[in-house]
Amino acid sequence: MPSDPHTSAGDAGLDHSDALARLHRHYQSMPPVAAMDVVVAGYDGHRLRLHAPLSTHVNDKGCAFGGSLASMMTLASWGLVSLHVEEAGLEAEVFVADSQIRYLAPLFADLDVEAELAPDAAWPSFIATLRERGRARIGLVARAKLPDGGIATEFTARYVAIAKPRATATPTG
Description:
The protein is α+β, with helices and mostly antiparallel strands.
């Protein structure tokens, strides 16, 4: 993990610190998310990582609560789409359209989730469609990792972005 959870250099050497700070503030503005103790753990321009302590998400078996894992993967994927929309200079509302989760192993450690583009999806076509049609959809994959690097939980989803209407100047006089 980077030493500062709000900064990470992208593949082109970009500094994403301002965008990650805005994303963190947005997460914290939602009371259910703020209660989850979610921290942006890194972003490399392709993958967004989130972290939360197990102590906030522990179930009756001493492992991570399935609903918390689902929420974290949903948030990481939403954040990744939001970052790419912002990077393209667009304003849009981002929604999860559908998702599927596979719970593969119990997680007895802090929750570390990583979201990335699905293998059959591409950011350029998503952004081009959003510019042209005012809405676009894209597939994402997120995973909760086990301490040994294995996968505890896998999430696949489609997200939809709908462009916000642009403000038009009101004629005066």
